[in-house]
Amino acid sequence: MAVILRSITTSTSRYEERADGVIVQRLLTTRTQTLTDARENTSALVRIAGGHPRRVLMDIRIIRALQPGVREHYTDPELARHCGALALLVATPGGHQLGRYYMAQNPGSLPMLMFTDEAQAIEWLHRETSDQPTFAGSAAL
Question: How far is the C-alpha of 120 from the C-alpha of 14, rounded, in Å?
């Protein structure tokens, strides 16, 4: 179990900065996510990333529905600059579909892969970004 240095909770997600520098976003609810929720989540990621590209694990295993505009918001290139690599943790057909959408919107611009196993996703994030500093503890909250 990784040590959590800090966390931010939004209306739909919890962001955790692990001691190894990985940021984990965990969805907390199956309710339909609104554009307001997405903007709140983006703000939380930017804040916890601390201005540096970070390794991010996005746990979307319980995702259900997104209001119009939410998917497009999450594929904004500005958001990608806060990620050094992105692992998508999926479990449902909807999660797989959303993961494929994100990957299609970011061809080659950001290392991104889908996983069903969290340990494998974390391992990949470390391999994919092994030459990047972790910046653990650098986010001013």
Answer: 21
